[in-house]
Amino acid sequence: MILNSIRKIFMSFRTEEEERLYSRAAFFNLLGFLGSCVAFSVLAQRLSRNPREIAHIARANALIRAIQA
After folding, report:
1. In the chain, what are the domain boundaries?
2. Which residues cross the membrane (predicted)?
């Protein structure tokens, strides 16, 4: 109930068009946040499936850097 009252106070200082723009921006920011959460979750799952493979890649990368130095 309090949040609704606070929202109405802020709405009274903006035009309808400004309120729509803020609402859309907030919605797309939320979608971006949720999308990044999903992407990081999928990435973490894929990386955690084969921890040995990741260790081999890290060793190979270190070896390549040592050879190049």
Report:
1. 2-68
2. 21-44
